Amino acid sequence: MVRASDELRGGQIVQGLTRTYLPPYQHALGWVIDPRSTRLSDELVARYGPELASIPNEPWQKTLRRIGLRLGQFKKTAVLKQPSLLVHQDRKMPDLWIGRFGLKHVMFRDSIGVLTVDELPAYSSVIRLEGVDMPK
Amino acid sequence: MISLIRDFGRTTRERWVLATLAGIFNGIGFVYFGPASFIANVPLLCALKHSRSYSEAGLLAGWVGFLGGVHIYGIVNYGWFLLLGFSLYTASQMVIYGLLFRGLWRGRGGILDILIVAAIWSLTEWMRTLGPICMPASYVGNIADVDWLRPWLVLSAWIGGIGVSSLVALVQSLIFHGFISSRQSRKSISFATVFLGILGVAGSIQLNAESGGQTVNVIGVQAGLANSQYHAATADPAAQDGVVGTFETLTQRAYKDRADFVVWPETAIRGPVFRDETLQERLFPGKTDPSILLAGLIEHNKEGKRFNVVASVLPGGQVDDIYRKVRLVPGTESHLTPGRSVRAIRAGPNHVGVMICLESVYPDMARRLVETGAEFLVIASNDAGFGFSPITRHMTNRAIVRAMETRRWLIRVGQAGISAIVSPNGVVMDRLGLFEPGLLKGQIKLSQAQTLFVQFGDWWMFLIFVIVGFRGWSVRSKPSIQAPV
To answer: What average pLDDT does the structure give for chain B?
Structure first.
């Protein structure tokens, strides 16, 4: 018998048609609205090269070349207008900036999932993903 | 033993113990074991019998209503204040139950004493069908999925679901009177028991009656997603594509299975499907598909108003008709505009009665839809926010009641579940559980017949008012009768 307290402990883990969905949770950066342990390179393939196969442990730089995206390097003061990689000095993996949701930023962080954050974590440079449309 | 029960409740403490017990029994009836409803209020009646004043009777019954309300704990996901508000709401109706019992029950063991208990319960349940919000707590809802009670449940076609709840309350009354005054009420109890037996025989005959005509294939599409996936989809286009992709995959499978009707849950896709041809191509039936899609969507009109709708979409993608949800959930759907009319919608050559979520708990909704030509009923719902709590099961049971009241085949499709195909006799032919993605397939029969309930609505409540009114008049005209002690 399922206890009421268990039922109310939070969201459900849902086995969807194509993947498992975990309940959202609060992270130090903001709300993780779509938690998953996906690696950045797999996320890039899923979003921008769905016709390609994922390659285990492929460096994200190589994945970008395989997808065929043109890259533009910008200073950290650049205004984010389209999906970009935010490179951090103290982190090996950049974050993928997806877009805005109201006043919040929507970003993907390697092995954590999609987050909505009020302020982006400090980054040293931006790699704009040329040819990727801004979501409507 | 009987005398122990008869005397228990003489002290204030005992009466509160009895009321608490009644609150727990009501909760068990709702959550785990529907037949517990047959005894649920018996302890309360024992307590009320010994109550010293109207205020005490009101408080005791109110406590039962409050505890009964707490069993709907699934709504706590929408905020604690809602759970508290609902519990106070059910408590307020039970206060009326307690006061009416105190004022109208004479303790003589006559047939009116037995009937008045069932009548005042019916009144409280009927009150829950009034106003802008109707909460799905009813005895008929508790027992709607209990197979051995089906001969009585199918009487809903005559007396409505509320009439069946009256019968449950009548059983409570018989048990109560059997405990407290078996000698005085023996004749009345026997009479009422025989009456219930005759009703059961009549229901058995009704169960075997043929119903329905043309057979059609229906498929319900259950994505099985939690609300958090929809919230993610509003912020992240990839998540939105995941939701659309799930519906696209399942719906295309349903078209390939050559369903006559494919049914989506409430607000299955929240993007601008009516304005986006790409989405329509992915989701709507193509020219070569044989299916009519009944699609739960959000409609934006030219004035910027938004409606919660179910659209019937013909092969080739043409929208044939739209039902706009009339009874919105207060607060939660305040950003939406209510529809204007409750009516069956066209779906190709047929007419379908659509209820969206909360609307399915209102008995008059299904009745009106059938009056306006519905040949079968559809409930499009999204109960994902209730999680695994018992509310969704109870909502599904209310769907069973709607099918029996109108004697229509019914398909209920929940975004996260529960989805079910229900026969006019209230039998769940097939179902999909909570948070399971998949297709619910079945055959249903179309019907144009109208039940007594559809034709005359709450005529049963007229009888209830007559019983309560007559007892009230007789109490006033015979003031010498002592208040029950």
So the answer is: 90
CA B215 from centroid of its chain's CA atoms: 26
- CA B305, B310, B311 angle in degrees (round to 5)? 95
Residue of chain A minimizing CA distance to B250? A17
Q: What is the pLDDT of residues B361-384, one digit of tens each?
A: 888 999 999 999 999 999 999 988
Q: State how far the alpha carbon of A29 is from the alpha carbons of A23, A78, B229, B425, in Å.
A: 17, 21, 20, 54
Distance CA B37, CA B31 (A): 11
Q: How far apart are CA A64 and CA A7, in angstroms?
A: 42
A54-58 mean pLDDT: 83
Distance CA B137, CA B70 (A): 11
| Structure-token pair, residue B258 | 């050559």
Average pLDDT, integer, range B140-164:
94
Distances (CA, A) of B192 to B36, B114, B197, B322, B466: 20, 8, 9, 47, 18
Classify B369 in phi/psi space as left (phi over 0), alpha (psi -120 to 50) or beta.
Answer: alpha
Cα distances (angstroms) measured from residue A66 to each of A59, A61, A63, B267: 11, 9, 5, 38
SS3 content of chain A, % helix, strand, coil (to 5): 15, 30, 50
% helix, strand, coil for chain B, step of 5: 55, 15, 30
The Cα-based distances of B209 to B202, B205, B397, B425 in angstroms read 11, 7, 22, 9
What band does A127 get if pLDDT is binned at 50, 70 and 90?
Answer: confident
Q: What is the pTM of this model?
A: 0.89
Q: Show which residues on chain B lie within 8 Å of chain A, measured between beta carbons.
A: 32, 73-74, 76-77, 223-226, 228-229, 231-232, 234-239, 242, 245-246, 249-250, 387-389, 416, 435-437
